[in-house]
Structures are given as structure tokens and as C-alpha cells.
Specification:
With about 100 residues, this protein is mainly beta. The protein has 1 helix and 10 strands, in the order βββαβββββββ. The mean pLDDT is about 85.
């Protein structure tokens, strides 16, 4: 996946036993399948936020010091560049959920 259409940054979602991992050039991390299904699979690198959301989520917004940025959701993965990010809001068929970051 190329976040925000930026082909200089590539992220990979890798499925494992009981969890998922996000890998990128300068790091990454793993989390449980339960957290992914709950929309709580979020990682950051610098000003970039990337996460995995359940099927019911159709919109993701990230709150930062400069305001709110809408992240594009592609195949259950989203990414956004947001300086000073503090929260992610997931919206969809199951309602809205805000997750604090940091």
C-alpha cells in the first residue's frame, strides 16, 4: 500500500498466527487480531498514522494540531500524515468510535 498516493513510502500488512503486522522501511509493529477487529490496530511513524479497521468502518479521520484530516480507507487499511496527531475517529455501520493516540 502507498499511503496518500506517495509511492516513496510503502507499507505492508502481514497476517500471522493470532495477529497482524505492519511493516515499513523504517520499522513497524504487530498487534492482535482482536485489536484489529476492534479498530484498535494503530501505529505511527513520525507524522504518519496507519491502521487496520474492521469491514464495517467506511471513514477514518485523524485529529492533529493543524485540525482534522480524513484518511482514505483501502482494503481495511488507512494512512494519514498529520502533525501532532492525538486521536483517530472510526465511522461506519456500527457507529462512531474515537481512539486517543499517544
Amino acid at each position: 500500500m502507498h499511503p496518500n498516493g506517495d509511492i516513496s513510502t510503502t507499507w505492508y500488512v502481514i497476517a500471522g498466527s493470532g495477529g497482524l503486522c505492519l511493516a515499513m522501511q523504517d520499522g513497524g509493529g504487530c498487534n492482535s487480531t482482536a485489536n484489529a477487529l476492534a479498530g484498535k490496530f494503530v501505529f505511527s511513524s513520525g507524522n504518519e498514522v496507519i491502521g487496520v479497521v474492521p469491514n464495517a468502518v467506511t471513514s477514518v479521520s485523524v485529529t492533529g494540531t493543524s485540525g482534522i484530516v480524513t484518511a482514505k480507507v483501502v482494503d481495511n487499511v488507512y494512512a494519514a500524515t498529520v502533525p501532532g496527531f492525538s486521536a483517530v475517529t472510526l465511522s461506519g455501520a456500527d457507529g462512531t468510535q474515537t481512539l486517543p493516540l499517544g
